[in-house]
Amino acid sequence: MKIFAVNGSPNTKKGMTHILMETFLEGAREAGAEVETVFLQKKKIQYCIGCYKCWVTTPGVCVHKDDMPELLEKLRGADYLVIGTPLYVDGMTAQTKTFLDRMIPLSDPHFEFVDGHYRHPRRYGENPPGVVLVSVCGFYERDNFGGLIDHMERMCRNMQSRFVGAVVRPSSYIFTLEEILAEPIKEIKEAARRAGRELIEKGTLSPQVLDDVARDYLPKKAFLGGSNDFWDRCIKAGKFLNL
Ligand SMILES: Cc1cc2nc3c(=O)[nH]c(=O)nc-3n(C[C@H](O)[C@H](O)[C@H](O)COP(=O)(O)O)c2cc1C
Fold first, then answer.
1. Does domain 2-218 have CATH number 3.40.50.360?
2. What's the pTM value of the predicted model, to 2 decimals?
């Protein structure tokens, strides 16, 4: 099984997205997957300018000369696309969205009517990869991911991909509190690793494993004091974590 993983966090390897995603992918590797990860921040990917040249002038080929064709090739050879993004303004990062917009050459402009919806057929014959979302956010509640998950589900329906599930972790900065929260961090990471294994062994992500990754590790009330204290320490230090 081949996984093509794109990490859309501007903080690349220093981000919480990387911690969650890498742990998930470790599990997938343990189960035999071949994984390739790309940090979108490090790639040259220009905005889609909506010219439709990739549909009508040079079918399948975008006007931009950048890193995207190489990424589309990797995507086309994958069984799964793992999209890693932190939650930014209740959605995905600009890096992630720009990458997804630039997937449009893979669609054919004509319409077809499937399951009560019009959509574009895929340009090429191969099966589209199944999609997994891996995301982190700063707020406490898991429901903050609702809009992003809905977006992914709709995108997959339109791209004729299977949306396998969302591995999400609210209160992402728990990962920086190893000294005081070693045990819950270990459990969350073990759940993320298990999720990666499940993906490869069963082709699904169980509700239980997703709950275990997202689970509360401290009472809701304690989040307030703990988080404000965290930010006060950052302000005092004049820097955010190791960034
Ligand atoms: C511009 C910006 C917007 C954000 N928007 C949200 C948000 O809507 N909800 C939320 O819970 N966290 C939000 N966050 C917090 C990030 O999701 C959180 O810091 C996450 O850990 C960032 O991922 P990274 O560690 O990989 O950089 C935002 C952060 C930034 C910088």
1. yes
2. 0.97
